[in-house]
């Protein structure tokens, strides 16, 4: 009579990897750095300052921190404990926990939605990563031309600097090439595996990122309007804490931690049983929040010194900052280092985005890591081409214009909307419901690393507060008119 261990690889793949066959982190610190790298990305460096600027500064920041503690951290811990218990990719970790809890195996849909979300986000995230590479090249060339001492782009007027991004958007071939280059760097590290690739990125690039962001923040404090930036970010005005601001802060807390994409489930599956998940999750959430705040303190002193508007929104990083660096001492060098720093943050996140579907594809079809990651990167590149060309050649082409949520959206915006407003919130809601109501309490208790009142508080948050708050994100994303949008 055949046993489970006698089954062929493709037969076992439906249940995930065998016990003890899964890769793992070499240490607790490696996991923490990798998880921080997964969470810290363009959401911190680009979206947080833009959202803070557009939503009144201090009121937004305060409520954002509250949301990280009450919603972001519980969901982060929930995803991580699912992965550690399941010791497999997102879908198979959820499946294993469901079966160990005598629940339906259909709950693996939570992980499957995360896998799809990660793949789709990767496809357009690398396009934005290509923009970062473009600005690294622009500032490197300017540094060679003007030297270290003066401001950036000497001899060029503001109008010329402001055309840098539109010129990139108008060059479809360059956009695709930069997308492919950034995706290629991501593939290189994921194909090398957990210890030789992903862990290398975490243990070397993340410390370099932290050194750069602290150094540039100090630079802004010395040469820029640091006191003004502090007042802007941390002065709480109750009148500015409106419904739309609170929902924006809640959304930022959710997206900043990269929840709903099975990333923390996948990374959690590589964690050994002796690691306290509650403590490490708190470190990860704190570091991610700290980076977001540092990004504000890094960017706003420079913006205020140049007399630019903090409400510039998404163009703050790619158009306002290059203008600001023109007025700053050593502007070319600081601009070059700034975009290197942003590139590091983007790379650590894109590595996590590719690892999520790679881990699943390896387990589902018994593929080697190299083959699985190359196949996924090729698919992401094809979608990335559509996203890149939606700014130029395919501008005005709206694939799903017959659906109100996607009307008049090109490929880039469509993929962004599909993931951020639908798939990710749905996956996060289901994660909270699964851990709070479906998974056996004995399993959650054993994995979470919480005791007494803290454990009871966590259970209340994950059962009630998180699902309700995440449902608000989902509903406002689908029906923006609910907040007057």
Automatic annotation (TrEMBL):
Keywords: Membrane, Transmembrane, Transmembrane helix, Transport. Residues 7-22 have a biased composition (Basic and acidic residues). Its main location: membrane. The keyword Transport applies. It is found in: Membrane. It comes from the Bacteria. The chain crosses the membrane at residues 29-46, 58-77, 107-125, 132-153, 173-191, 203-227, 247-270, 291-310, 330-354, 374-395, 422-440, 461-483. SUPFAM superfamilies: SNF-like. InterPro entries: Na/ntran_symport, SNS_sf, YocR/YhdH-like. NCBIfam families: Na_transp (NF037979). This is Sodium-dependent transporter. It comes from Croceicoccus esteveae.
């Amino acid at each position: 009579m055949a046993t489970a261990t006698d089954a062929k690889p493709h037969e076992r793949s439906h249940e995930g990897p065998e016990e003890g066959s899964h890769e793992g982190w070499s240490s607790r610190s490696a996991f923490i750095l990798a998880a921080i790298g997964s969470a810290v990305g363009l959401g911190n460096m680009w979206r947080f300052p833009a959202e803070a600027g557009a939503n009144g500064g201090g009121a937004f920041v305060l409520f954002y921190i509250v949301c990280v503690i009450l919603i972001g951290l519980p969901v982060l811990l929930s995803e991580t404990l699912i992965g550690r218990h399941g010791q497999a990719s997102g879908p198979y970790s959820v499946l294993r926990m469901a079966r160990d809890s005598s629940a339906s195996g259909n709950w693996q849909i939570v992980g499957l939605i995360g896998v799809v979300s990660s793949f789709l986000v990767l496809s357009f995230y690398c396009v934005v990563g290509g923009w970062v590479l473009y600005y690294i090249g622009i500032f490197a060339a300017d540094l060679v031309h003007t030297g270290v001492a003066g401001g950036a782009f000497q001899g060029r007027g503001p109008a010329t600097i402001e055309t840098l991004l539109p010129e990139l958007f108008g060059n479809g071939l360059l956009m695709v090439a930069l997308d492919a280059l950034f995706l290629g760097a991501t593939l290189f590290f994921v194909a090398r595996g957990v210890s030789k690739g992903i862990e290398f990125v975490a243990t070397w690039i993340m410390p370099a990122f932290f050194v750069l962001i602290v150094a540039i923040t100090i630079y802004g404090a010395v040469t820029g309007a640091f006191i003004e930036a502090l007042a802007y970010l941390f002065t709480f005005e109750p009148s500015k804490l409106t419904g739309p601001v609170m929902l924006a802060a809640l959304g930022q807390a959710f997206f900043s931690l990269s929840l709903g994409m099975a990333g923390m489930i996948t990374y959690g599956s590589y964690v050994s049983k002796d690691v306290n998940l509650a403590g490490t999750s708190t470190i990860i959430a704190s570091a991610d929040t700290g980076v977001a705040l540092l990004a504000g303190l890094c960017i706003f002193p420079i913006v205020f010194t140049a007399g630019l508007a903090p409400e510039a929104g998404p163009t703050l990083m790619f158009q306002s900052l290059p203008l600001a660096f023109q007025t700053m001492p050593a502007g070319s060098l600081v601009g070059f280092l700034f975009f290197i720093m942003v590139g590091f943050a983007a790379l650590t996140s894109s590595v996590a985005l590719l690892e999520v579907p790679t881990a699943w594809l390896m387990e589902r079809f018994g593929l080697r890591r190299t083959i699985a990651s190359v196949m996924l990167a090729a698919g992401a590149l094809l979608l990335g081409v559509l996203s890149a060309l939606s700014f130029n050649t395919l501008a005005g082409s709206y694939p799903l214009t017959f659906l109100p949520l996607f009307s008049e959206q090109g490929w880039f915006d469509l993929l962004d909307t599909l993931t951020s407003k639908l798939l990710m919130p749905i996956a996060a809601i289901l994660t909270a419901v699964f851990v709070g109501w479906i998974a056996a309490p004995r399993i959650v208790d054993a994995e979470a690393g919480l005791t007494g009142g803290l454990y009871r508080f966590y259970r209340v948050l994950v059962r009630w507060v998180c699902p309700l708050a995440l449902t608000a994100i989902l509903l406002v994303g689908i029906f923006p008119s609910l907040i007057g949008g």
